[in-house]
Every structure is written in structure tokens, then in C-alpha cells.
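Ticket #4471: structure output looks truncated?

Reporter: J.K.
Steps to reproduce: submitted the chain below (231 residues) through the standard prediction queue, then opened the result file.
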Amino acid sequence: MILKLKQLADYLTTDFLGGPKPWKLSWVINFQKAGTFIFVAALMWYYQNFSTAAFLYLALHGGYGFVWLIKDLSFPDYGWQKKVTIASGLMAFFGVLFWYWVIAWLLIKQPDIPNYPLSDAAWYALCAVLSVLGCVIMIAADAQKFYTLKYQKGLIDTGVHRYIRHPNYLGEIMIYASFGLLAWHWLAAVILVTVWLLVFVPNMVAKEKSLSRHPGWSAYKKRSGWVLPFL
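Returned output as attached by the reporter:
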């Protein structure tokens, strides 16, 4: 069932409705990442929301977009370099990426700061730490994968991958969780959990199936966790 979801997602984001494939999937992703800072700033201006929470969201989500662009220029993920149909590019944007912008809207459209479980300052600190740590884990994982596979093919079971089989997804989850916590809205939770279950989980299952053909997989799987150590 999960692998069927992966196949469906691949079709929707690669060959949907057929026709020419004029753009790379990475171009669609990078457009959203690069536009996030501008989009959030425009929301702040439109709603005249210049609260600390809004500026922090601008810094975290907008800043993450710039981090992604630097990563893509330095060590791009080859999985995003495939050419896709026009319909697939639109599906990737409006079916997944656009909903990340909705989280920003949920926060900034509110006239008042959300009623956080902790003091505002403590909650801001929690979100900032979660985002920074997520960025570090994601960048370290993608950099290790890129440069290791460039010179040596096979199973990567050292470094940041030593105890976690999917550290890049863990990083992404932490990053977007920080945005959701800052928005503190039930719809943000629905958006994130839906993406994690329908996109992240099928991708991780498919990756594990691919990795299982490498020598040493069984031992590596026993001593490592899926997205958290020993879990």
C-alpha cells in the first residue's frame, strides 16, 4: 500500500497528464523556496502584522528557503533533477509546496499572537532551536550523501547516518514542525502530518527497499533507527 502511494506520487510529480517535459522538478521546488521570504513579507504587509512572531516566522521559513538554495547549488539532490511535465510541476507546487505557505498565512492573518502553551519568549526559543537543529541535520545528511556517493557507491552507515537511516527527513520534519508550532493552528498540524504520511513515509519505505540490496543492510538496520536513534 505504501509503495503504491510512492508510485502514485512519482506519476503525479513526473508524468501527470503526459506531454512535453520543459522543466526540472528542482526548478519548481527552488521557485517555492526562493519565493518564501517574499511571500511571507507580502503577507505581513497585507495584514499589517509586524509582530515578533511574524518576523520570527519570516526569519525561520524565509531563511530556510535561502539555506535550501545554497544547498542545491552546492550539492544538489539528483532525485530532483528529473524533467517533469507541465501538469506535474503544477501538481508538485499546488499539491504540496503551496500548503507550506498556507502555514505562514495561518499565523500572519491572525490579529493577535497565538496563545502558546509557554511564554512567548520561551516558545520562540523552542521554535528557533528546533529549526536550526533541523537545518544542521538535513544539510549534514545531504552533504554526506552527495560527497560519499560521488566517490564511493554503496550503503552509507557512518557519520550522521550511523544511528538514523533517514536523517534528512528527520531534519525536514524538525524544520517544518518549528513553523507549525509557531503558527500554532490546528490546520498547520493537519497539513504537516498529511505531507509526512503521504510523501515522506512512502519515500522512506521506497528508500529502504532500495538500500536493502546492499551488503551489510541487515546489521545496519538492527543498530539504527528509522528517523530517531533506536526507534
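Triage note (M.O.): checked the attachment and the full C-alpha cell line is present. The mean pLDDT is 93.
Status: closed, working as intended.
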